[in-house]
Hints:
Blueprint: E1 5-6, H1 13-23, H2 25-31, E2 33-37, H3 39-47, E3 52-58, H4 59-64, H5 66-74, E4 76-82, H6 84-90, E5 99-104, E6 118-122, H7 128-141, E7 145-149, H8 158-164, H9 167-170, E8 173-176, H10 179-182, E9 189-193, E10 200-201, E11 211-215, H11 224-229, E12 232-235, H12 247-259
Parallel strand pairs: 1-4, 3-4, 6-7, 6-11, 7-8, 9-11, 9-12, 10-12
Antiparallel strand pairs: 2-5, 3-5
Helix pairs in contact: 1-2, 7-8, 7-12
Amino acid sequence: MKEFKKISSRENSLIKLICALQSSAKARKENGSFVLEGLRICTDAYENSIRFDKLIVSQTAKIKYSEQITGFSECSEECYELPDSLFKKISDTATPQGVIAVSRIKDLSATEIDLNGRYIALENVADPSNLGAISRTAEALGVTGIILSSGGCDPYSPKALRASMGTLLRMPLIILEDFSNCLPKLGLKSFACVVDNTALSINGVRFDDGSVIIIGNEANGITEETKRVATQLITIPMNGKAESLNAAVAASISMWEMMK
Length: 260
C-alpha cells in the first residue's frame, strides 16, 4: 500500500476542492475532475482501468477495506487519510463508507460515433436519477452509447453516478454543445419521441443499425428545433388518462423497441 498523507484540518485546500467538486458542476468543469464516492463505484472505476488523481479514505475505511484500498492506492497519484469526523464533512452521502477518489473528466465531445450502432440521446434531461436509470437500462439492453445535450444534468454529478451504479463510467458518452445543430451531423437516423397522436407509433417503426432515439426534458419534452431536424417523429401509444410518461420510463420502452 502506498503512503497516505494525513489531513486533519477543514481549511486544507484538498478538502475545499472535494467539497466544490461534490456540489458544483461549474467546479467540475473548471477543474476537469470529478468525485467518485463509495466502495462499489470506486471498484467499478478501478476495474475499468480508470486512474485516480487522488484517493481519500477515512481512518476506519483504511482498516475495514484494506485489501480494496491497497488496490486503489496503486492506481492513484496521491493518497490521503482523514479522521472519520472530517471525512463526513466532505461526503455527499448520509452514511459514508469512507472512500473517495478524484479522477479526470474525459473529453466527451471527442467520442467516436459507430455508424452501425444504436444510441439513446437525451435533450436537456435534468434529473440525475433519470439519467442514471436510463444509462443502466441502456447498458442492460446493449445500446451502443448515450448522447447528451450540454444543457442537461452533469453525468459526473455524484447523484448521477450513484444512480447509474457505475454504468456512466462504462458506457460511451457523447456531449453535444449545440444539440439540434450537431445531432444531424452524426450520420445517424434520428427518431424523436414525442407526445403527439399524429406521430408514428413506435410499434410500427423499424429501427435499423445507425439509429438514435431522442428523449426530451422531463417538463418540456424535445425542443422544436430538434423536432425539425429529426428524421422521424415517433410516439408511445398510451391508454387511459395518462398524458405523458416519466423520461426514464419513456426511454426504457423506446430502447426496448429499438433493440428487440
